[in-house]
Design a protein that fits this description.
By secondary structure, the protein is of the alpha+beta class. The chain contains six helices and five strands, in the order H-E-E-H-E-E-E-H-H-H-H. The protein has two domains: about 100 residues, Ubiquitin-like (UB roll) (Roll); about 60 residues, [2Fe-2S]-binding domain (DNA polymerase, domain 1), CATH 1.10.150.120. The protein starts with 6 loop residues before the first helix and ends with a helix. About 35% of the residues are buried.
Length: about 190
């Protein structure tokens, strides 16, 4: 015997599920703050970010991206898709580029992390940043920090031998504005 479900029931159920999913999930730093709710798992994490050592207590489920943005205030690393598809959250960890939304902060305990804020030396821009400006390799700028971090890493990895190679090794970073020609030109120039 088939079960009959009305359109109204489907809409009410979908609305309730959406409302629950929209409730923001929060976590706290435990430096003088109230402890996390009972039952949550926390861990001490030490990260060297852009040359500065940071010690924090984080919930075990906190991504490196959220720890950088929300606990350390380094908002240059962008939260794009939150699924590792766009590359906006790319940072360099222990010399390797990674998508920070796909790794937990506790997994990177003891690591050295470089974010886009760590590229410049005071007012002196990194050569890759200068090349991005010169070649107009950004438009809206949302993907730029991830593009820069990936570009710096690929040059250090030795993958900037040709425009085709640059395109291949930058393929994990998406640009909504279509600034790819400028990005490839910038990476090529900065690699020389």
């Amino acid at each position: 015997m088939p079960v009959e479900i009305s359109r109204r029931t489907v809409l009410i159920t979908a609305g309730a599920v959406t409302a629950v999913a929209a409730v923001p999930v929060t976590w706290t730093v435990i430096e003088g703050a109230a402890p996390p709710p009972a039952g949550s798992s926390t861990a001490e994490v030490t990260l060297t970010v852009n040359g500065t050592v940071h010690r924090r207590t984080v919930e075990a489920r906190v991504t490196l991206l959220d720890a950088l943005r929300e606990q350390l205030g380094l908002t240059g690393t962008k939260k794009g898709c939150d699924r590792g598809e766009c590359g906006a959250c790319t940072v360099i960890v222990d010399g390797n580029r990674i998508k920070s939304c796909l790794t937990l902060a506790v997994m990177r305990d003891g690591s050295e992390v470089t974010t886009v804020e760590g590229l410049a030396d005071g007012d002196d821009l990194h050569p890759m940043q200068e090349a991005f400006i010169e070649h107009d390799a950004f438009q809206c700028g949302f993907c730029t920090s991830g593009q820069l971090m990936s570009a710096v890493a690929l040059v250090e990895e030795g993958h900037a031998g040709s425009a085709e190679e640059i395109r291949e090794w930058m393929s994990g970073n998406l640009c909504r504005c279509g600034c790819y020609p400028g990005i490839v030109a910038a990476v090529g120039e900065a690699s020389r």
